[in-house]
């Protein structure tokens, strides 16, 4: 029981990060029917941006409050990464709109390779550690010498994720931008007939997806305390898996999928073997897709593209 | 008042007169293609303020293509389309919509996973929801059925209700020209009657200018002031709707259950 609760906490933390990245995949797929393979690397870039900003703020500007520094880093990283998302869409995807379906996909793989290599060249190939931050933990309960704890980091990660998801949900469901975004997702042509600038809406979708990936990037950095240029790939693939598992195109599905993947991976590592945790995560995907081809919360009918 | 002031005044009056004389929508010599297939060939037509103009033709004649070409996709390869004297031939679709044209397109295209209210909000999107409440009242008065269903998902409504919603959504943008593409398609006769009487009401009571594309030639010509006949992407006949109703060629092709192929040949002969 103690181990179970502890792993539940760990799994939800990891799942939050996957969920945040998964939203970017699912939104972009929803609106232009494209898998943005570069999204994982956008997440990785955001982690580097966060690291650089954190060092800048704490050492050069001498901000001593870690919480304050992190808050600033979070906001600034979201803005800068959103800019990356915008630029990538403009440069690599928009010119290919109306081209054959595989063209933007190939372009996305190109962007992914470019980002990973760019960071490798610019920042070096070695792992970049962060100074320790947010150490310490709440001890929830203790039995037979095994303490179930919720670290400050985990607490912060779950809190930030919950708050941002709530804000994001409000944005999509209740604001006129969110309505336009959903309209474009359901029928782009019709949205244009109503005076919606579809290109601008698509741009904003990329911006939002990148900003949420940036949140994940900051949290990832805080949680693991280290980042490398190749860190975009595995979390990216996992988050994509989460999006498909939850039903690609569905926002709650992406979050649910992220949490499930995080939990499966954590529990598998704890109870079985850590080497096979990725196998477990991807097997869940395969099994769910066999019985529910459109994912857990996906729509049964496939929209005509 | 200075001489310059008077001159400006005179200019403005002339401008207003010119606009009044000019048709609201003018399509001249427009050709459009899907790939290398010509869908429209040198189409000329115009709609003046306050009119109901109908375009009738068989399935595949190019009626819906013309509707879409007016809105910029596919763009006309040659010719010129003006709205209130402004050239809109090469404008992007969303900018054309912002000028005051609204369309209820073929197949209705309501947003299926949005509520009726959200669909209507989308219609009002280009005003940023300013006079939303007021306009909602107006369209609900026209289609009382929608009022009962504001919270329902549009995709779960019947075809007739979706058609009402599509027209209401178009009206929410306060257009000066309303384009209706086959509002009777696939609907029961009684429902069609209701929708056509709503269209008439719109024109009479609110002075709405309407361009109506229809396969249901009889109803359309009954409703409209003027009509055009489109055959294989070409306008073959035009005139007062009443005159077209009595025209033997139109009668034979469109009003007495003539088959599509038959309609095409008769239309060509008439031109």
Automatic annotation (TrEMBL), chain A:
InterPro entries: ABC_transp_permease, BCAA_transport_permease. It is found in: Cell membrane. It holds the Pfam family BPD_transp_2. It is a multi-pass membrane protein. Keywords: Amino-acid transport, Cell inner membrane, Cell membrane, Membrane, Transmembrane, Transmembrane helix, Transport. The chain crosses the membrane at residues 12-35, 42-61, 67-88, 100-119, 151-172, 202-223, 243-267, 279-298. Belongs to the binding-protein-dependent transport system permease family. LivHM subfamily. PANTHER family: BRANCHED-CHAIN AMINO ACID TRANSPORT SYSTEM PERMEASE PROTEIN LIVH, HIGH-AFFINITY BRANCHED-CHAIN AMINO ACID TRANSPORT SYSTEM PERMEASE PROTEIN LIVH. This is High-affinity branched-chain amino acid transport system permease protein LivH. It comes from Methylobacterium jeotgali. The lineage of its organism: Bacteria, Pseudomonadati, Pseudomonadota, Alphaproteobacteria, Hyphomicrobiales.
TrEMBL record, chain B:
PROSITE patterns: ABC_TRANSPORTER_1 (PS00211), ABC_TRANSPORTER_2 (PS50893). It comes from the Bacteria. GO terms for molecular function: ATP binding. The keyword ATP-binding applies. Coiled coil: none annotated. It comes from Methylobacterium jeotgali. Gene3D superfamilies: P-loop containing nucleotide triphosphate hydrolases (3.40.50.300). Residues 25-257 form the ABC transporter domain. This is High-affinity branched-chain amino acid transport ATP-binding protein LivF. Belongs to the ABC transporter superfamily. Keywords: Amino-acid transport, ATP-binding, Nucleotide-binding, Transport.
């Amino acid at each position: 029981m103690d181990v179970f609760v502890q792993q539940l906490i760990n799994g939800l933390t990891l799942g939050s990060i996957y969920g945040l990245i998964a939203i970017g995949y699912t939104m972009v797929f929803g609106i232009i029917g494209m898998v943005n393979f570069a999204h994982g690397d956008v997440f990785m870039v955001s982690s580097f941006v966060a690291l650089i900003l954190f060092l800048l703020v704490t050492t050069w500007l001498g901000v001593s409050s870690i919480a304050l520094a992190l808050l600033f880093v979070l906001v600034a990283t979201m803005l800068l990464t959103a800019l990356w998302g915008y630029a990538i869409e403009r440069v690599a995807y928009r010119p290919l709109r109306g081209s054959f379906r595989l063209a933007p996909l190939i372009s996305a793989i190109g962007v992914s390779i470019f980002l990973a290599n760019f960071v490798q060249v610019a920042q070096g190939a070695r792992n970049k550690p962060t100074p320790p931050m947010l150490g310490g933990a709440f001890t929830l309960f203790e039995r037979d010498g095994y303490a179930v704890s919720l670290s400050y980091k985990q607490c912060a990660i779950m809190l930030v994720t919950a708050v941002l998801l709530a804000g994001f949900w409000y944005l999509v469901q209740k604001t006129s931008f969110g309505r336009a975004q959903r309209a474009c997702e359901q029928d782009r042509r019709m949205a244009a007939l109503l005076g919606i600038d579809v290109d601008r809406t698509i741009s904003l979708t990329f911006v939002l997806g990148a900003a949420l990936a940036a949140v994940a990037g900051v949290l990832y950095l805080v949680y693991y305390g280290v980042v490398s240029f190749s860190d975009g790939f595995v979390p990216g693939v996992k988050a994509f898996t989460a999006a498909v598992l939850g039903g690609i195109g569905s926002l709650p599905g992406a979050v649910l999928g992220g949490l499930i993947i995080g939990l499966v991976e954590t529990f598998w590592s704890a109870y079985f073997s850590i080497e096979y945790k990725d196998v477990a995560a991807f097997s869940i995907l395969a099994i769910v897709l066999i019985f529910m081809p459109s994912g857990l919360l996906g729509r049964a009918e496939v929209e005509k593209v | 008042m200075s001489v310059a002031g008077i001159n400006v005044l005179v200019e403005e009056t002339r401008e207003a007169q010119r606009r009044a004389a000019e048709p609201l929508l003018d399509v001249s010599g427009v050709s459009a293609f899907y790939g290398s297939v010509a869908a429209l060939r040198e189409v000329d037509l115009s709609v003046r303020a306050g009119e109901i103009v109908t375009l009738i033709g068989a399935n595949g004649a190019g009626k819906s293509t013309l509707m879409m070409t007016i809105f910029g996709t596919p763009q006309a390869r040659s010719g010129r389309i003006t709205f209130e004297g402004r050239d809109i031939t090469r404008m992007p679709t969303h900018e054309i919509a912002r000028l005051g044209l609204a369309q209820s397109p073929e197949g209705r295209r309501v947003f299926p996973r949005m509520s009726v209210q959200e669909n209507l909000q989308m219609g009002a999107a280009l005003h940023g929801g300013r006079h939303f409440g007021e306009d909602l009242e107006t369209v609900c008065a026209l289609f009382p059925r929608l009022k009962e269903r504001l919270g329902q998902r549009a995709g779960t409504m019947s075809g007739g209700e979706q058609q009402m919603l599509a027209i209401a959504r178009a009206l929410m943008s306060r257009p000066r020209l309303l384009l209706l593409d086959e509002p009777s398609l696939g609907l029961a006769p009684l429902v069609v009657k209701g929708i056509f009487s709503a269209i008439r009401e719109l024109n009479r009571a609110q002075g709405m200018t309407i361009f109506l594309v229809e396969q249901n030639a009889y109803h359309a010509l009954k409703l409209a002031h003027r009509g055009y006949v489109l055959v294989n992407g070409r306008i073959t006949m035009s005139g007062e709707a009443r005159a077209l109703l009595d025209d033997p060629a139109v009668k034979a092709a469109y009003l007495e259950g003539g088959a599509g192929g038959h309609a095409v040949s008769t239309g060509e002969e008439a031109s």
